[in-house]
Write a structure and sequence with these properties.
Elements: E1 6-9, E2 18-24, H1 28-33, E3 36-37, E4 49-56, E5 63-72, E6 83-89, H2 92-103, E7 108-109, H3 114-121, H4 127-138, H5 142-152, H6 155-179, H7 190-209, H8 211-219, E8 221-226, H9 233-241, E9 259-265, E10 268-274, H10 284-299, E11 302-308, H11 315-323, E12 329-334, H12 344-347, E13 356-358, H13 367-379, H14 394-415, H15 420-438, H16 444-451
């Protein structure tokens, strides 16, 4: 309920310089003032001011914590309500003591994402901007952060609202022609419907053009490093992660489970999976690892197949490359510092030249070529321009595709001179699908589901 006053810890749990407790609601200033002792009473504090003092236990009058309290009065706050932020010393005990006292007042613990939900319900941000907030928190690269920040600023929302305006004007003209056909207002012909549909479809296509790139930047690529035992998979993981993440020995079969590590390459987040060497084995534990490797291969967005350049191509490797035809994969010819024995022509039967990367992981050579190969594979060598509006959210992409299909249906109906009141249904569907992106036509269950993904205090 928006009439409640809520509180939550807004910073990560653990030791640190400070911790912040956020309070929002109609009684935020009054309830915090009952616990706060300072030279200036909070009820008289101006908005956007910071005050030094102490949190006290109202029953014993004992000083509980030394704090700084920031007051932001409605509507000039994130939630558009009165907001008070209490900065305590970092640490679990200090912030818990303050929270316990707050919850003894007329304040309840906030639900996950409730501060941002209030900002949405109070009209400060729309649904796509709210989703941008969680993307901002979870971003794994500079480009993903920049993309989320633009969404929070409303760049995507502006584009969607502009398209909805075109459609609502189209619907208004259709209504006039249905209700007053004798006036023939602007003679709303099938040709004009086709023109409006084409205009909006072109804009949707422009947004969808960056959807795959945006989704990769937002979620990252699950990347499985696969190959036979002792070809350098774990060494490659350590090189890309720039640390000793996996155990490396000369003994085949050292890696017996899937090891995960997150890295960013050319602004592309990668979830690296170092897998057990794929081979037939009698070792029970290693066999489980091999099965997990096969599962990782089947689910990965990108495969990095590591082979030894100083050995002939093994039949297991040929079988693997045969199995993954049509998948996004790069072959790494490792150990190029040793005399080459691999039949390159045989290798080219399975993989095109541009997806073969010579490397020497031991000598730290070729990592830059691998980075460029990944960028070429998914982004044609470069990302779109900095001012491009990226669509990265799976929900947004699905709704854009639905809206486009409705407009295709409207265009085809107009082309076949279907009655205007029938075409109106498809145009309205497109308008509603776009409205779900910004929250104008989203139902309550969807809104609750989206905000439940947020952390407490956000």
């Amino acid at each position: 309920m928006l009439s409640d006053t809520i509180a939550a810890i807004a910073t990560a749990v653990g030791e640190g310089g400070i911790a912040v407790v956020r309070v929002s609601g109609p009684e935020a200033v009054t309830e915090v003032e009952a616990l706060f002792r300072s030279k200036t009473p909070l009820s008289k504090a101006l908005t956007h001011t910071v005050h030094y003092g102490h949190i006290i236990d109202p029953q014993s009058q004992e000083k509980v914590e030394e704090v700084l309290v920031t007051v932001m009065r409605a509507p000039r706050s994130f939630t558009t309500e009165d907001v008070v932020e209490i900065s305590t010393h970092g640490g679990v005990v200090a912030v818990k003591r303050v929270m316990d006292l707050l919850l003894q007042q007329k304040i309840r613990l906030a639900e996950p994402g409730e501060f941002t939900k209030r900002a949405f319900l109070n009209g400060r941000i729309d649904l796509s901007q709210a989703e941008g907030v969680i993307d901002l928190i979870r971003s794994k690269s500079d480009k993903a952060f920049s993309m989320a920040l633009k969404q929070v600023d409303g760049q995507l929302s502006q584009n969607i609202r502009r398209l909805r305006q075109i459609l609502v004007e189209t619907l208004a003209h259709i209504e006039v022609n249905i209700d007053y056909p004798e006036h023939d207002v602007e003679s709303f012909t099938s040709e004009l419907i086709k023109n409006k549909s084409s205009q909006v479809m072109a804009e949707i296509d422009r947004l969808l053009h960056t959807a795959e790139q945006g989704k990769i930047l937002r979620e990252g690529l699950t990347t499985a490093i696969v190959g036979r035992p002792n070809v350098g998979k774990s060494s490659l993981l350590n090189t890309l992660a720039q640390g000793e993440r996996a155990i490396v020995t000369d003994i085949p079969g050292t890696t017996r489970d899937v090891i995960e590590e997150y890295v960013t390459i050319n602004n592309i987040p990668l979830k690296l999976l170092d897998t057990a060497g794929i081979r037939e084995t009698m070792d029970v534990v290693e066999r489980i690892g091999v099965e997990r490797s096969r599962t990782a291969v089947s689910e990965a967005d990108l495969l990095l197949i590591v082979i030894n350049a100083n050995e002939p191509l093994h039949e297991d490797e040929m079988a693997l490359m045969e199995q993954i035809r049509g998948r996004q994969a790069i072959v790494i010819m490792n150990k190029m510092d040793l005399p080459a024995q691999i039949d390159r022509d045989l290798l080219l039967r399975y993989v095109p030249e541009e997806l073969i990367v010579p490397m020497s992981v031991k000598e730290n050579e070729g990592a830059d070529r691998l980075e460029q190969a990944i960028s070429n594979l998914f982004f044609s060598g470069k990302l779109e321009s900095a001012d491009m509006t990226y669509v990265s959210n799976v929900r947004h992409i699905a709704l854009l595709k639905k809206a486009r299909q409705s407009l295709v249906d409207a265009y085809e109906a107009a082309d076949q001179f279907v009655p205007i009141d029938m075409i109106q249904i498809d145009v309205r569907l497109a308008w509603e699908h776009l409205g779900e992106i910004v929250g104008d036509t989203a139902h309550d269950a969807l809104i609750d589901q989206i905000f439940s993904q947020f952390c407490l205090g956000k």
